[in-house]
Design a protein that fits this description.
It is found in: Cell membrane. Keywords: ATP-binding, Membrane, Nucleotide-binding, Transmembrane, Transmembrane helix. The chain is an alpha/beta fold and about 625 residues long. The protein is about 65% helix and about 10% strand. It has three domains: about 10-210 and about 250-335, ABC transporter type 1, transmembrane domain (ABC transporter transmembrane region fold), CATH 1.20.1560.10; about 345-430 and about 520-620, 3-Layer(aba) Sandwich (Rossmann fold), CATH 3.40.50.300; about 435-520, P-loop containing nucleotide triphosphate hydrolases (Rossmann fold, 3-Layer(aba) Sandwich). It contains 19 helices and ten strands. About 35% of the residues are buried. The structure holds adenosine-5'-triphosphate.
């Protein structure tokens, strides 16, 4: 493609983007936009009208004693009234613009984050390019639509202004009108080039700015604060943050320098045109060809035309970045969401969930994580999953939640491939405690209620599951009970309430467990290391409770403490992406394979003659 074709393509895309921004504004605030547009056109013609009245006033005054005082007064009052009213109209326009701006911001945020929550699976969230686009698109919600509509309004106002003022100059010095328009045209073209530089720079630096943001948020992150202080890593992180900033600033300054050179050239060109014009007009006045009012009219018109061009130039400065940001926003909205052919609803599980010759990897070129896994989790039955770190256990959980799809093989829900099922409906049939569970800066009740959005406010249900997770007493004892905000960094939005309360690691884990128990009508309960942070007594009791609570549901339990899996109906050992053994605890111990080896290894850690003596005493 030739450079010209590329430029044409870019220009067309920019026009489409600006059009979409205007359409968004129009849809968000049609009445305000129409009003603001009308006022914009009016203010655009004020300068020429005021200039015209002033010219006639000066010409009248220049007549001296022969002047018509009534006419002069009317012209003077008229010019002053127009200037005063124009100011008031500008103030109204400013208010309208900010009202429109808020409506547009709301509309953009609603659609942008509405799309984000619609995105199925996790692949977008693990893609740096997606985050880069999201960052730019989020900027769009702050400034871009507003800047683009502001640009169009300024363009409109300036076109009216330049048009009317040029007509005025045409009557005084026709050649000058042409020269002024030419200089303005050159200025605008140059500014478009600058604007494109800015857009290209934004695209290039998006990841650098993301790194800078990452380091700066890490430096104030309450969870990171412990390790950063312990390791004395603050300086290192600060250096990295500043290095990112330095890289960005040197490139920003480079573009700013080139822009400044261009701008200085343009200013000199404009000054030269003005000097030439003034020379011609003043000479005309001295020679008696032009009246004093003509000189005043010319000078004010030239200033007006230049101000109009400057207004557009200033708007164009950030336009490239705004077009890019708004373009990213439009691209994100175009990502596939929940639309498309309706998927089958998910029936209650009757037989079981099956992985059949399941092959999976996170990246098309990455290593296989699952290599032909076969596993059946029967409805109402329990399966324990065992394996060393990195064996693929949590990946299997994420597949069951349909955060990813298999590359080869099948995941079957009662014999139906899950790809044929609605993922959201499927997830409603699951209760899952993730290994890397979340600790939300919400109240205790909200932290738990979130597990079943339909019963978010159901205090009785929240309390019931907190009891199952043995957290009721602890939460009741908090300063505001279940209403206590569990955050060390936030207070409620009014700035009151009790903040600064947090839980211990094991308590947070119990809250996460309670959250996953909120949904009652589920078929598959998945617990990925649900008790790793619990003390031994609590672990034992909670497992008994979960056995009772999970009865009648399919259960997949993952734990490195093999003793907690002993009672599972089936235990599968995952190794190097494959199920290498499966059976009951007794069968696997008898087989003397990997499970038996791991179990004996753990049990040997507890070998102590006092343990045996205590057990005998307890038995007696
Ligand atoms: N989001 C991801 N993107 C790319 N690779 C990943 C991702 N998550 C996990 N992996 C890789 O997949 C492999 C299996 O990880 P997984 O978390 O499933 O193991 P695990 O058996 O649950 O381990 P652990 O016992 O430590 O929790 C690992 O090699 C890991 O590096």
């Amino acid at each position: 493609m030739t450079g010209e074709a590329v430029a044409r393509g870019l220009f067309r895309r920019a026009l489409r983007t600006v059009g979409a921004a205007l359409a968004l504004q129009w849809r968000g605030a049609p009445v305000l936009s129409a009003f603001s547009l009308t006022l914009t056109v009016c203010t655009g013609s004020v300068a020429a009208t005021g200039g015209w009245l002033t010219k006639h006033l000066l010409d009248e005054l220049a007549k001296g004693a022969a002047a018509d005082s009534g006419r002069a007064l009317a012209l003077g009052v008229g010019a002053a009234a127009i200037a005063g009213t124009a100011m008031a109209v500008l103030n109204v326009t400013e208010y309208l613009v900010s009202a429109i701006r808020w409506r547009v911001t709301l509309a953009v945020e609603r659609s942008l984050f509405g799309k984000v929550i619609e995105l199925e699976g996790l692949k977008y969230f693990e893609d740096p390019a997606f985050h880069g686009r999201l960052k730019l698109a989020h900027e769009a919600s702050q400034e871009a639509p507003y800047q683009l509509t502001e640009l169009v309004q300024t363009l409109l106002r300036s076109t009216v202004m330049v048009g009317t003022l040029s007509a005025v100059v045409l009557t005084v010095a026709p050649a000058m009108a042409l020269l002024l328009l030419l200089a303005g045209g050159v200025g605008l073209t140059a500014q478009l080039v600058r604007s494109r530089w800015g857009a290209e720079l934004s695209r290039t630096l998006v990841q650098t700015y993301r790194w800078r943001g990452f380091y700066s948020s890490l430096l104030v992150d309450v969870r990171a604060a412990k390790e950063i202080r312990l390791f004395g890593a603050g300086e290192l992180l600060l250096d990295r943050m500043l290095a990112a900033l330095l890289k960005a600033s040197s490139q920003e300054l480079n573009v700013a320098r080139r822009g400044a050179v261009l701008q200085v050239g343009l200013s000199l060109l404009t000054a030269a045109v003005t000097v030439v014009g003034t020379f011609i007009v003043v000479r005309g006045a001295v020679a008696g060809r032009l009246a004093i009012g003509d000189v005043a009219l010319f000078l004010s018109s030239v200033a007006g035309i230049q101000a109009a061009f400057n207004g557009v130039v200033m708007q164009l400065e950030g336009a490239g970045r705004s077009v890019l940001a708004f373009g990213s926003y439009l691209e994100l909205l175009a990502l596939p969401g929940r639309e498309g052919a309706p998927l089958q609803p998910v029936p209650a599980l009757r037989k079981g969930v099956e992985l059949r010759d399941a092959w999976f990897r996170y990246d098309a070129n990455g290593p296989w994580v699952l290599k032909g896994v076969n596993l059946f989790i029967p409805a109402g039955g329990s399966v324990g999953l065992v394996g060393v770190n990195g064996a693929g256990k949590s990946s299997l959980v994420k597949l069951l939640c349909r955060f990813y799809d298999l590359e080869k093989g099948q995941l079957l829900w009662d014999g139906v491939d899950v790809r044929e099922l609605d993922p959201r409906a499927l997830r409603l049939r699951l209760a899952v405690t993730f290994q890397d569970f979340m600790a939300y800066d919400f109240t205790a009740a909200e932290n738990i209620g979130l597990g079943d959005v339909a019963r978010f406010q159901d205090a009785a249900r929240v309390r019931a599951v907190a009891k199952l997770a043995e957290m009721d007493d602890t939460l009741c004892a908090l300063p505001s009970g279940y209403g206590t905000l569990l955050s060390r960094t936030l207070t409620d939005e009014e700035g009151g309430g009790t903040g600064g309360v947090s839980l211990s690691g094991g308590q947070w884990q119990r809250v996460a467990l309670a959250r996953s128990l909120m949904r009652e009508d589920v078929d598959l309960l998945i617990l990925d290391e649900p008790s790793s942070g619990l003390d031994a007594g609590a672990e034992y009791r909670i497992h008994q409770t979960l056995q009772r609570h999970g009865a009648g549901r399919a259960r997949l339990l993952i734990s490195h403490r093999l003793s907690t899996l002993r009672s599972a109906g089936l235990i599968a050992v995952l190794s190097d992406g494959q199920v290498v053994e499966q059976g009951t605890h007794d069968e696997l111990m008898a087989a003397g394979g990997e499970y038996a080896r791991l179990f004996c290894l753990q049990a040997s850690g507890y070998q102590d003659e006092r343990v045996a003596a205590r057990a005998t005493e307890d038995a007696a």
